[in-house]
Every structure is written in C-alpha cells, then in structure tokens.
Amino acid sequence: MKALSSLLVLAFALATGVASADDEALSPQQQQGKRAYNHICVYCHSPGVWGTNRLSKRMDKEKAVLENRTDLSAALVQTVVRTGIGSMPPLRKSELSDADLAAVAAYLARSR
Fold this sequence. Notes:
This protein is mainly α and 112 residues long.
C-alpha cells in the first residue's frame, strides 16, 4: 500500500510539474522548456516509448533518450522540431509556440 501511495505521489508531481532539486540548477527558460517537454515531447521521447525506441535502433540506447544527450545544440533541436526528421513529424507553431520551442531547445542543449 505504501508503494502504491508513493507511486501516486510521484505521478502527481510529474503531472503537475512540481520542481525537483535538479530544477533549481536550470535557468528560468530551461525550467519552462522542461515543463513544455514534459507536456508535449515526453509521450514519444521518454525511456521505453515509441520515439525513443526508434532512435535506439539508429544510435546508442543511452543517446536515444533526448534528456540524457549532451550533444544537442539548441539550433538542431529547433530545426528538427520545425522540419521533422525520419519518423518525427514537424510541429507547427500552433502545436508548440516559438517561445516554448526555444525553451525546450535550451533545456535539451543545457550543459551537463
């Protein structure tokens, strides 16, 4: 029962965007990017889901999880999101605003 309640608390925290200790190291733009990533991108690009599984066929499995990458530039992220690549469709500004895209790009391109 404790495990279930802990899992529910974690799920609620993730769903509501409650900040973690790691979030304090992020700039405000990167924090906005993490929220946007968790709202839009995570459904295809978290561990064990479709987009990540597709990427893992072309590259190292660790690099397939976008949040683990250290080689992404903001410009690359923005280009791929707007134009699409492989099986990823392009996202329109009505799906992800320019400001949110810039924030996601800053979040994924952050130094580690």
